Amino acid sequence: MRHMVNALAQSGDLRLSVWAPPGELPASASSIATASESRWLAQLMAAGGISHLVRKGGLQSLLAPVKLLRMLRAVYGRQAAVDIYHINWLQCALPLPDNGKPALITSLGNDLKLLRLPFMRHLLRRVMRHRRVAICPNAEWMQAPLQAAFGDVAEVIPVSFGISQHWYDIEHDISASQPRRWLAVTRLTADKLGALFEWSQDFFRHTGRQLHLFGPMQENIAVPDWVHYHGAATPEQLATKWFPCACGLITLSRHAEGRPQVMLEAMASGLPIIASRMPAHASIVNDEITGILCDSVDSYGAALRRLEDTDVNRHFGEAAREWAMREIGTWTDCAERYTRIYRKLLQDDDIE
Prior knowledge:
Blueprint: H1 2-9, E1 16-18, E2 29-31, H2 35-46, H3 50-56, H4 59-78, E3 85-88, E4 103-107, H5 109-114, H6 120-128, E5 133-137, H7 143-150, E6 155-156, H8 165-168, E7 180-185, H9 190-193, H10 196-204, E8 209-214, E9 228-229, H11 235-242, E10 248-251, H12 261-268, E11 273-276, H13 279-282, E12 291-294, H14 297-307, H15 310-327, H16 331-347
């Protein structure tokens, strides 16, 4: 979200009022969170975010979403003079006031799970019905279910998030990488890891390969001793130390998500992708061109062996970088996509 705000702020005709966890903002953006709201949002981020709290269960899984919605209702009430709302995630649209002002609502794969809750579609449709709304999932595969749920009260327009320029500038070369290093960057949950440990053990344990795993521990996951687990890593650490010399990025997730940002950043860096065959991954990975989609341990092993060939790896990595630049671009490109929709929403024109 920080990248999105910074890119939007570069547009000379936008004045941004930002309600988000505390952090540095560009000169043309102002924070509208009160001191108590900022403290609570900072604590929420430190706890892993609202989705993580809900997954953990317990009393906080009920109280935190209610508190978030109450705060948002207060924020919307304080900001009566806005021209348009840019809301990240469907649940944050629930407290919108009945003032008819247009809204752009971004959506991730997790939002589709939200729609399974009782009355959730009805509540969201009610806040959309009397205003112009663009729902903007960050991947095309979500367009059909969102269209089915809200197509008569909103326009569904996929908008990809951007990629920071420094990922495109990385020089990727595995010829100097010994041993062969593969990376997995993910939150550690059973669904996000998927079959990673099960499928990888025969190909990494007692071999010349190394599997380096990065990400916060969000469930009680036993990491095998042959996995190099580093905990959470900063983007700077990945960009400077790990991405330049890795054979590629592995994700065997079973988790329904939009377009995982780390996959886009890896592709922009020239890394091939090995991914489980699921809609979220198939919308990013052009199978056999920018990476390889796997649905069995045998196809996974074959993908590892194939992409460890230096020439094949370079060919796949170059294709991945070219795709990322052409189809995704930078955060500036993303901001331009959003501002075009803002203008259409405000002008009562057809959005697309």
